[in-house]
């Protein structure tokens, strides 16, 4: 095989490689542009997050010492507010809410309490449309590790949905149109078309290596072309 024939074969191989990579590279560019363009704080709804109620020990009729004595194996005990009411959040194998006023254990957050929590984390003009209990088979936008939760949906312009833990009273996840689009782009960006969480998948690794080889080959071919032009 002559040098010219070998040169032409390598160019054709490089062109074919770039044709194969054209679609994933285009997807990477479009999805990456969306990530850069969108404000992550807006996506997460940071500007809507509830400001914690200011509390002090004088307001708490049930002392922390009793909670610690009753739960000596707790990994963590913190003072939180749920629906503007103070609770001790005890973390063991599962979250446990203890009323900081009377010491009663809250077995599970009610639908009304979940709605109050969700509304406190949304604009005042957003109206709740549905409050749904989810204890199994979560929707694709919610990780199963957060179950059980209350799904609180709103009628705002971006169809916001907040997921409030039945056990801790926390907003464990929120979704709206822009975040759902973010999730959709993320799946394509990391090439995990199942649940969009595995960034170490074989398809992404193979495509990335293939892309690096194609780019380096293109640089090498261009240098060779410049060298040939000077001869």
From TrEMBL:
Keywords for this protein: Membrane, Transmembrane, Transmembrane helix
Upper taxonomic lineage: Bacteria, Pseudomonadati, Pseudomonadota, Gammaproteobacteria, Alteromonadales
Protein name, per record: Peptidase
Record bears the keyword Transmembrane helix: yes
Chain ranges passing through the membrane: 202-223
Source organism (scientific name): Ferrimonas lipolytica
């Amino acid at each position: 095989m002559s040098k010219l024939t070998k040169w032409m074969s390598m160019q054709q191989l490089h062109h074919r490689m770039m044709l194969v990579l054209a679609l994933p590279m285009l997807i990477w560019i479009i999805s990456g542009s969306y990530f850069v363009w969108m404000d992550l704080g807006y996506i997460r709804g940071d500007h809507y997050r509830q400001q914690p109620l200011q509390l002090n020990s004088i307001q708490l009729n049930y002392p922390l010492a009793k909670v610690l004595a009753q739960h000596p194996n707790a990994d963590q005990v913190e003072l939180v507010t749920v629906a503007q009411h103070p609770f001790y959040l005890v973390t063991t194998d599962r979250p446990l809410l203890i009323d900081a006023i009377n010491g009663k254990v809250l077995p599970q957050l009610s639908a009304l309490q979940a709605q109050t929590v969700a509304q406190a984390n949304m604009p005042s003009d957003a109206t709740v449309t549905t409050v749904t209990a989810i204890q199994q088979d979560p929707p694709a936008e919610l990780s199963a590790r957060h179950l059980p939760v209350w799904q609180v949906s709103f009628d705002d312009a971006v169809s916001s949905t907040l997921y409030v833990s039945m056990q801790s009273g926390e907003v464990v996840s929120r979704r709206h149109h822009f975040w759902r689009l973010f999730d959709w782009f993320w799946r394509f960006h990391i090439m995990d078309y199942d649940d969009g969480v595995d960034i170490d998948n074989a398809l992404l690794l193979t495509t990335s290596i293939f892309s690096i080889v194609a780019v380096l080959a293109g640089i090498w071919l261009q240098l060779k072309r410049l060298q040939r032009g000077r001869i």
